């Protein structure tokens, strides 16, 4: 089973990297970019096919390591 | 006094802090590998040195914070044992939950390597008792992620409980939260745990202990710890 975990900064947290990318896009003349926030993507392959169990495993992975919930939130998506 | 300096893959200041401890207190600390599950018997002080543990992968200090030895450090801190985290060590302490908040990218995205002016906010702690009240000291900083961040509630609690140990200040000795070198909330350079036995700070007191290489403002921090433990 394959899953994708998306970790992003909470909206209240300043994202200087996103801001720099936003500025770079603007200076490149890419039109219509209102704002950019940078995040992380983890593609995880899981043993077994039980999706409830997989979700619990990924949740544990996020809480314990993948995300720092002081500043970040996470989203779990199953792919394919 | 028995001290242990932890060593993670990618730590690179363990030698400097060990030398500073030896230089100031006369006692050579043990170097403890991260995969160990126990600290040497009778350890009074645990130091988490600076560096780039695990190459700063994922988040600074995130992987080191989950190392086997950290369970022993947690137990040591819970018993009231002293823990000092410098730079990457501070990041590890925040990631492990031993200190609140988190250190994120410097506000202006630059790695900052220079001397910083710091105000010693209180001198009734195990780490600062040899400083003069209200002292302003010079420690070097060298970090890309030293921008201390926490939610408003946590900041209010830290301030209310007087748990800010060191604050960045301007040349006049006053803080200016709009001009902090790395963008840290409330100009915070270092914070203490609730029981004041865990200190994390971004600047490097271990760099300034020997007159041969410059100022010696860091000495009093190590003298404070040693004096505290002698008394105990």
Radius of gyration of chain B: 16 Å
User: Taking strands numbered 1, 2, ... along the chain, how are they ordered across the largest sheet of chain A?
Assistant: 2-1-3
- Please state the structural category of chain A: alpha+beta
The biggest beta sheet of chain A, please?
A: 3 strands, antiparallel
Backbone shape of chain B:
globular
Low-confidence stretches of chain A: none
**From N to C, what is the helix and strand string of chain A?**
EHEHE
Query: SSE order of chain B in H/E notation?
Result: EHEEHEHEEEEHEEEH
Mean pLDDT of chain A: 94
Strand content of chain A: 25-35%
The quaternary organization reads as heterodimer
Number of helices in the DSSP assignment of chain B? 5
What helical percentage do the residues of chain B reach? 10-25%
Please give the alpha-carbon distance between the first and last residues of chain A: 8 Å
Offer a quick outline of the entry:
The complex is a heterodimer of chains A (80) and B (232). Helices cover 35% and strands 29% of the residues of chain A.
Give a written overview of the molecule.
The complex is a heterodimer of chains A (about 80) and B (about 230). With about 80 residues, chain A is of the alpha+beta class. Chain A contains 2 helices and 3 strands; from the N terminus they run E-H-E-H-E. Chain A is elongated, with a radius of gyration of 16 Å. The mean pLDDT of chain A is about 95. Chain B is an alpha/beta fold and about 230 residues long. Chain B has 5 helices and 11 strands; from the N terminus they run E-H-E-E-H-E-H-E-E-E-E-H-E-E-E-H. Chain B has a 9-stranded mixed beta sheet, with helices on both faces. Chain B has a two-stranded antiparallel ribbon with strand order 5-8. In chain B, strand 3, helix 2 and strand 4 form a beta-alpha-beta unit. At the A-B interface, helix 1 and helix 2 of A face loops of B.
């Amino acid at each position: 089973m394959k899953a994708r975990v998306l970790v992003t900064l909470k909206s209240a947290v300043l994202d200087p990297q996103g801001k720099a990318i936003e500025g770079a896009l603007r200076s490149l003349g890419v039109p219509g970019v209102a704002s950019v926030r940078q995040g992380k993507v983890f593609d995880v392959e899981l043993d077994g096919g039980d999706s409830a169990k997989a979700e619990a495993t990924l949740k544990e992975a996020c809480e314990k390591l993948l995300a720092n919930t002081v500043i970040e939130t996470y989203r779990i998506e199953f792919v394919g | 006094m028995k001290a242990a300096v932890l060593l993670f893959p990618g730590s690179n200041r363990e030698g400097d802090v060990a030398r500073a401890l030896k230089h100031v207190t006369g006692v050579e600390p043990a170097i403890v590998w991260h995969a160990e599950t126990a600290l040497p018997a009778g350890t009074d002080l645990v130091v988490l040195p600076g560096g780039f543990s695990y190459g700063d992968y994922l988040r600074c200090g995130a992987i080191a914070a989950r190392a086997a030895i950290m369970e022993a450090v947690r137990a040591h801190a819970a018993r009231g044992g002293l823990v000092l985290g410098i730079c990457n060590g501070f990041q590890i302490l925040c990631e492990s939950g031993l200190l609140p908040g988190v250190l994120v990218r410097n506000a202006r995205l630059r790695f900052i390597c220079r001397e910083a002016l710091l105000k010693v906010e209180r001198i009734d702690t195990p780490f600062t008792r040899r400083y003069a009240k209200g002292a302003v000291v010079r420690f070097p900083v060298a970090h890309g992620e030293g921008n201390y961040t926490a939610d408003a509630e946590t900041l209010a609690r830290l301030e209310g409980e007087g748990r800010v140990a060191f604050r960045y200040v301007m040349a006049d000795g006053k803080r200016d939260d709009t001009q902090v070198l790395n963008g840290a909330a409330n100009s915070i350079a270092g914070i203490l745990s609730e029981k004041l036995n865990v200190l994390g700070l971004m600047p490097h007191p271990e760099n300034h202990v020997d007159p041969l290489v410059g100022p010696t403002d860091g000495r009093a921090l190590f003298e404070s710890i040693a004096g505290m433990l002698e008394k105990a």
